[in-house]
Flagellar motor switch protein FliG
Amino acid sequence: MAENDKDFSHAQRASLLLLAVGQDRAAKVLKHMGPKEVQLVGSTMAQLGPISSVMVDQVLEEFIIEIKNETGLGLDSDEYIRNMLTNALGAEKAGSIIDRILLGANSKGIEQLKWMDTRSIADLIRLEHPQIISIILTLLDPDQAADVLTLLPQNMRSDILMRIATLEGVQPAALRELDDIMEKQLTGSDGVKSSQIGGIDAAANILNFIESAISEPMMQDINESNSDLAQRIQDKMFVFGDLINVDDRGIQTLLREVSTDQLLLALRGVDAGLRDKIFANMSRRAAEMLRDDLEAAPPARLSEVEAAQKDILSIAKRLSDAGELALGGGGGDEFV
């Protein structure tokens, strides 16, 4: 690995920082991270290779500078989170995000589910009422929910997705039903307002992580039952080709997080316009090398290409949620 900090990804910086602070402190930090983050940091640590003092110094220096500029350090309140997100995103867009974050933070049962493998989650909930399944899937990360949905019986999938798309809120009584399923106490009382989870965006986000062979029949079923709902879901879906609508700065931000192997696989068979946009936001040398690799690469399975594209879309969504790029897909109202 190069010893210039501009070549380090966020995961590499985090891994170097944790390695620098020692095992005990690193373990305490990892306890506050989600399962995907722990897995990412752990695998990145294993791939770092030889670590020099220069690399560690650079990362520590950057961390110290960032922490000095952190205005919210030491604050840990729901009110602070609500104000921060409302100021950043506006009241309308922040509403559902705030409720989902705060509900998830206070829902120990949901957090426990996030550490389970998707097969175990599917086995746990498959006999529950479809509305309960819909609520649980909405509280999971979209890619995890997508995996669980594909493991449920085929005759349930479309109904569950429709319920997710039309879900407007969850009453405390419904949360108590989740308590029974997961044997964990979730917060909430009869006087608390409904939590704004679910909806068209949630359904579209889950579909984005399901391979087309499974998602297309689901959308056909929904279209036959409710064509207007199907169209609204379709309009909100963000597919790989929609990256052409992301501005150049956003593409450059995305490319810094995507590996060359991922990009090489994901660009198979995409429109020339999107390829050209990707090439235009790379250095001339990197673009030429990628073009040559694409021309020389052997055929790849469609499932592998779709998986690489979905991985990149997942990164794009994460960056969008962090405000580092604006997705300009079919939703039409994704800019903040």
In short: The CA atoms of residues 143 and 314 lie 8 Å apart. The chain has 20 helices and no strands.
